[in-house]
Amino acid sequence: MSQDKLFVIGIGGTGMRCLESFVHMCAMGMFDNKEIEVLTLDTDQENGNLKRVWDLIALYNRIKNPTGNDADAGGKPSSNTFFSAKLNLSKYWPSYSGGVNYQSLSNVSIKSDDTKENIDLASLFLDEAAQNFDLAHGYRAQTHLGSQLMYHAIISAAKNVKSKGNAALPQERELIKYIEDLVKLKSQARVFIFGSIFGGTGASSIPVIPTAFNDAYNLFKGLPLETKSTEAKFGASLLTEYFKFKSPTDAQKKEKKNSIVADSSYFTLNSQAALQFYQNDPTVKASYKCLYNVGWPVGDVTDFSKGKNESETITGGAAQKNPCHVTELLCAFATHDFFNREQFEEKEADYLFRTVHHDNGSFNFNFQDFVGDSKQFKNALPGLYSIALLTLVFHQGADAKEGMSGWINRMVKMGNEEYKNVIDEQSKKDITDYFKSFLFHKEGSNVYDGWLYQIKNSFNGQFILPPSAFAKDWSSIVKINAGELLEDDISKWGRKKDAGDCANKFIDEFIKSNVNPEQMPTGHPKEKLIAQLFNTISKLQNVS
To answer: Which residues contact 29 (CB under 8 A, 6 or more apart)?
Structure first.
């Protein structure tokens, strides 16, 4: 892996779900010994998918934190273990929320004190509806308008931080510090951007981010605007249409603030136009090193409105909390390729894609479809799944309780008291809660999908693990054998009798395993326990 410093940016609702997959990759241990600067960039600070990924990163960092003290937030990077990458989160959103007095293009950019010529010029290119819809929920597939506004917002943040210092908004200060950090590293910074290219915020932002960051830095530092200060290597996922939702009604569009609402029936056309733009635009080709094309069969797009009684199109806010999709995981794995590349094209962007077996509307995903050298992934995904499953099912952590005490009590019963009374209750709950977000959680007799289950349910066909690993009802889930997830006989370690027998075999191996210093840089018992769980499952799976 390259020694460059790594930066990741999630933009818009799709970008947040891609970032969610990226965080789960970090939890699996796919970015060993790396400290990664993460930026969430969205116009809609109340967005449900945005809040979900904020909560996930906060949970991840509490697990990494050895002491619970703010000074140790996020812990330290580690190797060959779960939760090995250190994640530093920055947040930025333009201040578009205005309640009754909502913010529109007219209010933000076309001021009442503008000259008549400027107002007339805006009206020549943008109709009244485009000038007056509420920006709080994003750019609503108006990418020509959104690109201007996102550039304007980033430049405004630089101006405000320069003039106001610590009195500037917290999210503006976080953005400018993020930009400063990557500019200072020059060509030793790699920046990967997640977002769709058929919608609003992500589609609007991907083309302008390298230029906007460069110009914002120059403005903040008092340099000529045309100075090339940003030498970072940029990469991005170009994710085309893969979902749809309820089309807006005429009644909804009659409201002035909803005069424009994104209509998913146009997403196919939007995707086609965007691909032509990215293929031919000289600025994009010069700004990016790698652009990863990720597509989906048009006839199989996911309907985010299915099963919901929505009287009108959800434009954003807390109600926009859509499930994850396998395309987002493919985008997340594009970072793995980008961050591990040794060489890049010198003059212009390299356009990349890979294909997956698809027949009669059904996919068959295997480990190699996500990453070329799949040994690490082949150990990481089933490994985290097995430990999560045993924690949630056999150690009864799937509902409101925590399941890590079950592991520790079983170790004590089998003669290992190392972890007795040394890991606090909050830490045990945090680890269990992460496993719930990864797989599933239970409320009464109902089972609710976590991230991996959502990925599997986003398409028809096979997803890496056996179909039985994604059982729907609790009576079937308790029968899943955590030791028979891989095809190779050498990797099947689960005993056939029952789940307790499987857990006993795991603890037998756990007691024999050792932990190396690089797996636990802080030396905290919680960190050592996670590393020892990783070593045990790696030994049992024996991936070749």
So the answer is: 80, 81, 82, 83, 84, 376, 380, 384, 534
In the block, tokens 């990349």 appear at 352
Contact 242, 327 (CB under 8 A): yes
Contacts of 496 (CB under 8 A, 6+ apart): 481
Rounded to an integer, what distance in angstroms lies between the CA atom of residue 39 and that of residue 289?
A: 20
133-142, 175-184, 221-230: which has the minimum mean pLDDT? Answer: 133-142
Q: Is the pLDDT of residue 253 over 70?
A: no
Paired with 351 in beta bridges are: 291
Least Cα distance to 208 among 259, 284, 155, 292 occurs for 284
Q: What is 5-101+143-251+264-354's CATH topology?
A: Rossmann fold (3.40.50)
Which CB contacts under 8 angstroms, 24+ apart, belong to 516-519? 516/80, 518/33, 518/78, 518/79, 518/80, 519/78, 519/79, 519/80, 519/81
Residue percentage of the chain with pLDDT more than 90:
60
The DSSP-derived string for 348-372 is: SPEEE-----EETTEEEE-GGGT-S
Which of 172-186, 302-316, 473-487 has the lowest average pLDDT? 302-316
Angle at which helix 525-541 crosses helix 375-389, to 10 degrees, equals 110
Can you give the pLDDT at residue 347? 80
User: Residue 152: in which H helix or E strand, if any?
Assistant: helix 143-164
Which range (57-61, 318-322, 439-443) has the least confidence?
A: 318-322
> Could you tell me the residue ranges of all domains in the chain?
5-101+143-251+264-354, 375-541
Range from 6-10, 207-211, 300-304, 403-407 carrying the lowest mean pLDDT: 300-304
Per the listing, tokens 């089309």 go with 247
- Give me the sheet containing 233-239, strands edge to edge: 86-92, 35-41, 5-11, 189-194, 233-239, 290-294, 350-352
Q: What letter would DSSP give residue 391? A: I
Binning pLDDT at 50, 70 and 90, where does residue 314 land?
A: very low
Q: CA 329, CA 354: separation in Å to the nearest integer?
A: 14
**Dist CA 451 CA 324 (whole Å):** 6
Half-sphere exposure (Cβ direction) of 366: Cα atoms closer than 13 Å: 10
Whole-angstrom distance, CA of residue 437 vs CA of residue 446? 15
| Token reading at 508 | 């037998």
Q: Is there a contact between 450 and 23 (Cβ–Cβ < 8 Å)?
A: no
Rounded Cα gap, residues 409 and 199, in angstroms: 50
User: How is 57-79 classified by DSSP, letter by letter?
Assistant: HHHHHHHH-SSS-GGGTT----S
Residue 449 CA, chain-centre distance (Å), reads 17
